[in-house]
Design goal:
416 residues, FAD/NAD(P)-binding domain, Enolase-like, domain 1, 5-stranded parallel sheet, 9 helices, globular, binds flavin-adenine dinucleotide
Length: 416
């Protein structure tokens, strides 16, 4: 009797979706693997889209083909294919074109969408952007050809990257944040000095404790922003970076459990049989705090996507969770890694800080000092992977504490 070929269907062709497709293909060479994307471009490395704004990279240089998790081998990636509904009873999805596609195993890997706060007026004007896709990056680059001044709303990582890209293009850039500091999710105000200095040097004007109530425009598009104190700043483009949320609206009537994102078990399976989820759209857990979280990070999405792919093929593969905060990236050419618990103000965590003009290191231990639970490196991120391992494995650090604190830890330690 002929064995039925499995039909694997993946919604979302990015870090999680393509990593899953590749993992499936490695384990099942016969089944069909179809990946649906609502974008118009083949998969690309999303964290690099700011380089397309600055002009430092062409799209062809940030594509995933031949790099990262995507190899394209017998994986059918269909562009312009927005999934509108998922029918879990009949195991099929409907695409905007009207087509219906059946599945045996389905992966939701639709990532996240930017938040646009409802209390800012005028967001529909030409010249107002959010940065999520390569299409957004291209549109920003086009506007930047004629704009002289850009205003960025929000001081998170994505907006800082976008701000730096525009500075590199030669625009004047003002960043407006309500909180007293930038990057407040990833570090505390005192931790940001090196990054602030780098942004100042690059020419960024930073306004903290302020917010914009309205974006002003005329027939040419954006002409300025109105501040909550009544002041106005003239500008020709605005970029809104006010956080992200899981992209789940199309699952409304599917019966798939959603709570901040798609809720999955440790085998990346949702409450509905044969439906899995991974990446920014999925709710996972933080191994340190045990809390349920949605992460918003490329490496996590790719790791979780691979794991989901193995589970879809029937090779049970538990996902070990990820830190609520974990970021290895750079802003204004300043590399940094932030992981685990790094907000210590008002707590009794044991904290060690080492700061030089070029590098900053903050290490956070449990109050009894026996376990490392968080680390922040700015400027010098060498050996950060070791610290990640120690935190994630919840290791007792009794014998290596002074090596950790004095940054003398090396991989050899773990070979003993
Ligand atoms: C500017 C920027 C800079 C970043 N920098 C960093 C960084 O330095 N480090 C880091 O770790 N992370 C960074 N990130 C975050 C990282 O890119 C994401 O965590 C990662 O892309 C998540 O991957 P994903 O596969 O879960 O989802 P996504 O990459 O969001 O992909 C989901 C895909 O699904 C598509 N889709 C959505 N709905 C549908 C539908 N209904 N039908 C069909 N297709 C659909 C989307 O269009 C998209 O192509 C950055 C993100 C941005 C935007």
């Amino acid at each position: 009797m002929a064995v039925k070929q499995m039909q694997y269907l993946i919604i979302g062709a990015s870090a999680a979706g393509m990593a899953a497709a590749e993992a499936i293909r490695k384990l099942d060479s016969e089944g069909s693997v179809t990946v649906l994307s609502d974008e118009q471009d083949m998969p690309y490395f999303r964290p690099m889209i700011p380089f397309v704004i600055s002009g430092k990279k062409k799209f062809s240089e940030i594509m995933l083909i031949g790099q990262g998790p995507y190899q394209g081998a017998n994986i059918d990636v269909r562009l312009n294919s927005r999934v509108e509904t998922v029918n879990t009873a009949d195991q099929k999805v409907s695409v905007k074109s009207g087509e219906e596609l059946p599945y045996d195993k389905l992966l939701i890997a639709t990532g996240s969408v930017p938040n646009i706060p409802s209390d800012i007026g005028g967001v529909e004007a030409e010249g107002v952007f959010v940065l999520r896709t390569i299409a957004d990056a291209r549109a920003m680059a086009r506007r930047a050809e004629t704009a002289g001044h850009a205003v960025m709303l929000g001081g998170g990582l994505l907006n800082l990257k976008a701000a730096f890209a525009l500075l590199e293009r030669g625009l004047d850039v003002t960043l407006i944040v309500k909180s007293p500091e930038i990057l407040s999710r990833l570090m505390e105000p005192d931790d940001t000095v090196l990054i602030r200095n780098a942004l100042n040097k690059a020419g960024l004007k930073l306004m903290t404790g302020s917010s914009v109530t309205r974006i002003l425009s005329d027939s040419t598009g954006v002409i300025g922003v109105l501040l909550d104190n009544g002041g106005e700043i003239p500008c020709q483009m605005v970029c809104i970076g006010k956080g992200i949320r899981a992209n789940v609206e199309f699952l409304d009537k599917s019966g798939i459990l959603v709570d901040q994102g798609v809720v999955v078990d440790k085998f990346t399976c949702s409450n509905i049989q044969n439906v899995f989820a991974a990446g920014d759209v999925a709710v996972t857990f933080d191994p340190i705090t045990g809390q349920r979280i949605v992460t918003g990070l490329w490496t996590n999405a790719a790791e979780m996507g691979s794991c989901a792919g193995r589970n879809m093929v029937g090779r049970p593969s538990a996902y070990s969770g990820t830190f609520g905060i974990l970021n290895a990236t750079q802003v204004a050419d300043e590399p940094f890694v932030s992981m685990g618990i790094v907000h210590t103000k008002g707590t009794d965590y044991e904290t060690h800080i080492a700061a030089t003009p070029k590098a900053y290191r903050k290490l956070v231990f449990t109050p009894d000092g026996t376990r490392l639970i968080g680390a922040l490196f700015i400027g010098d991120i060498s050996r950060a992977g070791l610290y990640r391992y120690i935190i994630r494995e919840r290791m007792s650090v009794k014998d290596i504490k002074s090596d950790i604190v004095n940054h003398r830890l090396h991989y050899g330690y773990f070979l003993r």
